[in-house]
Design goal:
By secondary structure, this protein is of the alpha/beta class. Helix content is 31%, strand content 35%.
Length: 197
Amino acid sequence: MGNLRITLCEDEEMFAKALAEEIRAFLACKEIKAEINWCGSRQKLKEALEKGLQPDLLFMDIELGDGDGVELVRSIRGEYPNLPVIFLSGLEERVLDGFDVKAFYFLFKRNYTERLSGILEKFLSEYFYASRIMVKEKEGVRVLSRQEICYVEAEDRSTKIHTQDGVFYDSDSFHAFVKQLPAEVFIEVYHCLHVNV
């Protein structure tokens, strides 16, 4: 199973490091591996996204040295409509600005350690676990993320699952297996062949 990809866009390096350690410690208790990227400015985040960075979760400072974090999120919403964003700030009056661009949550820097685990728990239940697919193999159950699956097809009375890391077989019938897949993401391109678009 792939790592959870988290990006921190925060211009205070010490705060970013402390936040990253808290996130890692929380996820380690859940046995979830995380790849955490740090971008120290709006410009660095924009460049990373242009180079193909695809975070599962973005922590976004509102007051950055090179501009406004809310405006940056507004500008990328077309390309990343469902990206969960947790805004970071010391200013309570900016909360509503964050929700204007569909913020997942708002975290005050001064007491972030008190609320971080609750917010991450909510993120995991609403996004991370919800995007996992259970594959029933002969040896047991394997968990794959939806984005790992390239396409699925029927093979005999089971389902053949093609991923970036190889091929897996689910003992369920194809029609039973595809009920787990969101229809807006996995399109039937041929009888008994669904592709992740």
